[in-house]
TrEMBL record:
Protein's UniProt keywords contain Glycosyltransferase: no
Cellular component, GO annotation: membrane
GO terms, biological process: phosphate ion transmembrane transport
Keywords for this protein: Membrane, Phosphate transport, Transmembrane, Transmembrane helix, Transport
GO terms assigned for molecular function: phosphate transmembrane transporter activity
Organism the protein comes from: Allacma fusca
TM helices/strands, residue ranges: 6-28, 40-58, 78-99
Localisation: Membrane
Pfam families named in the record: PHO4 (PF01384)
Name of the featured protein: Uncharacterized protein
Length: 109
């Protein structure tokens, strides 16, 4: 229990550093960072939704959990599938709605 107070911030710092390094390497250090930035936007939105939904379905309120007697795997599988589907839906919406709007707004400036 006490170890999680140390391990959780350490792991989040490592993951945050890795994400920042990837963004700097593949987006910010490019000659035209707008194109890879817009290309990666649906990915970031989709992954964020996946992580949030899976944490809600796994550790959220009891009424959001999907339980069957003697089938503990079902909760994990169903929670993962819901989060992946919703993440993909959000990524597709961002790709077809937000990215063109942002591209148009950036080009008009």
């Amino acid at each position: 229990q006490v170890g999680s107070w140390f391990l959780s911030p350490l792991l989040s710092g490592i993951v945050s550093g890795a994400i920042f390094w990837l963004i700097r390497r593949f987006i910010l250090n490019k000659s035209d960072p707008i194109t890879p930035g817009l290309r990666s936007l649906p990915i970031f939105y989709g992954l964020t939704v996946i992580v949030n939904i899976i944490s809600i379905t796994m550790d959220g309120p009891e009424w959001l959990r999907f339980r069957l007697e003697d089938h503990a795997w079902f909760e994990t599988f169903f929670g993962a599938m819901i989060s992946i589907v919703l993440g993909l839906v959000v990524a597709i919406l961002i790709f077809f709605v937000m990215v063109p709007r942002l591209r148009k707004e950036i080009e008009s400036e």
